[in-house]
Amino acid sequence: MGEALKTRLVARALDEGFSACRLCRPDAVPEAAGRLQTFLGKGYHGQMGWLAERTQWRGDPAALWPEARTVIMLAEVYTPEEDALAGLTRRDRGNISVYSRGKDYHDLVKKRLKRLARWLIAEAGGAVKVFVDTAPVPEKALGEAAGLGWQGKHTNLVSRDLGNWFFLGSVFTTLELEPDAPEVDHCGSCRACLDVCPTDAFPAPYQLDARRCISYLTIEHKGPVDEDLRPGLGNRIYGCDDCLAVCPWNKFAVDAREIGYAARDENIAPPLAELAGLDDAAFRARFAGSPVKRIGRDRFVRNVLYAIGNSGDPALRPVAERLLADGDAAVADAAAWAVWQLDNL
Question: Which residues partner with 204 through β-bridges?
Fold first, then answer.
């Protein structure tokens, strides 16, 4: 029954819209705890204090739910239709990371996971828990152990069949199902992802210093960004796709099946002048249902002002000047920096 159930499970996962489904044991990542402690010990997590919490679970999935016997790892592709880096040359416009140009993946993936979990219970009983990104689960390590892909030099999961444009989700179950073989590293001597990083966020291959990562700086970092790092942000106002976009394994990337991941027109190269004028209500309305909404108006407009300062476009100076007295200190600081940058072209 076990092998037959696994075959049906994989088929069901693909029918639900997932791109790949692989299995591993909860204790299949004994190296995770050491990697996490090294990352935290070097301070690479920056302001993400939550990463230092519940480390016993982040480092050992078996401790998260001791009754679990199998982890079902799912990949869901969001490969962009457009060139992810094309917008970087349009300096008067903002560049939003591909995964945030459409609907929030958390909602889409979790609904699919829950449907798959309900099917599994109906078929074989047992108990389940589903996770997508927001729980202390080392999803990339488990994805590698299950054979979905390997953690590349940019620390993201890479697949020989899917490239690296995919989300991860997991279903923990008390059912004991046959695990798949882990994937091995296929990066070879390639350094494309390391060399393209505008802020040198990779101290070494397979290591990420989040404090220098544009995705971290534009999404997680509170307050002013270090002035030395601001020029490297370019016009990236939410996240960064550079290291993902240049991966050679994307030649095998498949099209996204979920229409919700398709970019909204207004999120493809939006004018910086328009975005800088958003108040809180307008920001919430514009990014309703989008991951962008979670960082709030102030942090978003701060990012927009850094992009204005990097634009080299004197016509945007009045836009920045209007925010010099903004109620948020980081926004006002970013406005002053943008004005100074444009005054000193």
Answer: 207
